[in-house]
Write a structure and sequence with these properties.
The protein is α/β, with parallel strands linked by helices. Helices cover 29% and strands 23% of the residues.
Length: 201
């Protein structure tokens, strides 16, 4: 008997990624769109608040356990911006080219040493709408912002995020490498470990 969990997203890539990791534990991850659940309003002021808001919304609408992820990039020189506004940094939600262009513009002339940044991924798992103890998993990925785009893989800020241990941009990494070392990979590993220990579902 498999356990269905709703993912508070309709991102096909994320659904595939979660199912690849959780299916052998008898967990079936379905997108909230399959249940006609609309996107939650992300009114939180942190990645954690937004992930919990999205998970609670999906639980409330479906009556099933839910998993939500909120992620973004934090640039030290910009005091943590774009942060929770990463997807809509330039104004239009999900316009990756405009977001990258604006970030490069804001860092124009800033030396390498001051271009430090990190990706964050927060996963929130809730058993039901009124779950008083949501499980929260947090992964980070350290790097710095390049001066121009490089690489064809990935999405979002990947083309301008330099990964020191690999000597290239995130968008230059093969998918299988990125999926081992990224912020989301780290948060997912914590989630899988918690599920394997039981007493979660």
């Amino acid at each position: 008997m498999s356990q269905t969990i709703v993912l508070a997203s309709n991102n096909a890539g994320k659904i595939k990624e979660f199912n690849a990791l959780l299916s052998n534990m008898g967990i079936d991850v379905k997108p909230q769109g399959e249940f006609q659940v609309e996107e939650a309003d992300e009114t939180g002021l942190s990645f954690i608040e937004n992930a919990i808001l999205k998970a609670r919304h999906a639980c409330a609408k479906t009556g099933l356990p839910a998993l939500a992820d909120d992620s973004g990039i934090e640039v030290d020189y910009l005091n943590g911006a774009p942060g929770i506004y990463s997807a809509r940094f330039a104004g239009e939600h999900g316009n990756n080219a405009a977001n990258n262009a604006l970030l490069l513009e804001k860092l124009d002339g800033v030396p390498d040493i001051e271009r430090t940044a990190r990706f964050h991924c927060v996963l929130a798992y809730m058993r039901h709408e009124n779950d008083p103890t949501p499980l929260v998993f947090h992964g980070t990925w350290e790097g710095r912002i390049l001066e121009s785009s490089a690489g064809q893989e990935g999405f979002g800020y990947d083309p301008i995020f330099y990964v020191p241990e690999c000597g290239c941009s995130s968008a230059s990494l093969p998918k299988e490498v990125k999926n081992q070392i990224s912020h989301r990979a780290k948060a997912l590993k914590q989630l899988v470990a918690a599920f394997q220990q039981g007493n979660v579902l």
